[in-house]
Amino acid sequence: MQSLFFWKEWPQNYKPLWFALSGLFIFSLLFLLFTWFQGAHGIIQWEKIQEQKIVETTVHQFRMGNFQLNIPGESYVIFEYLQGSDIQHNTLASYTFLAVLIISSMVLLTIITTLKKFWYFLGMGVFILFVFALRLEVLLVFTVRGFTIPVIFLSLFIVLSFCYKSFRPAASFQARLLSFLALALVCGVIINYFSTVPFPLLHLVATAYLPALILSILFMIMVAHEILVSFVYIASQGTSKSLQHFSIISLIYMVNIFITCLHELGVVQWQFLYINLYLLLCTS
Length: 284
Known about the structure:
Elements: H1 6-9, H2 15-38, E1 46-64, E2 67-84, H3 91-112, H4 117-133, H5 148-167, H6 173-194, H7 200-207, H8 209-223, H9 226-235, H10 242-264, H11 277-283
Antiparallel strand pairs: 1-2
Helix pairs in contact: 3-6, 3-7, 5-6, 9-10
């Protein structure tokens, strides 16, 4: 418990923000697990189709000499079929994805404004690439084509971040975050009401998959080593053969990860108990 005492030294104004972001993170993990267990039921459902038909059947049989005579009769039968419904877009998942992505990017932008000069300019360069990767030009806001609208939106964020960096460095983290969130909300309202493409926010969801995928890969790289760190902690509790135990456990783990990757890539199709990658990410 000694390692948790740092929490008492944290500034009081950062603790509510930590709880809020932790709640958002836990919500994202729970939503990931929910949609994984839900599977295809989130976009397609079973439909029951009933059809009435007249089926001719034999209601009586008798023999006359060497002949067997059948007396037919009509029966009304109701057949019931199951078929998949039309694919329905899961708008809840799309809007949730967009909201979490925007909030997370605004938090990262707020952190960038608190960095030193070199890291600030490097972070803003990455943020500029992130905004251009959203491809806001395809939304045709105010029917304007080209990069005019993305450059205007991006300029607003750059100017606001530069003001905090150079003119108001003493501004609190919460004030910076709220101002960026408010600016993102204004941009979202403009896109929603003044874009000429149908369903502009859902269109933005589609174009945001690439930058979100890049952020997800960076996140996986940042947390992937935590499993091995836990192996170090477990192996270091007790005997003097900690290095040997850690090597064996890590080797088994890495071999399983390698086989799972080959299975996901379609290279191998063995009858093997593969590691669930969603569970592995959540554990990390």
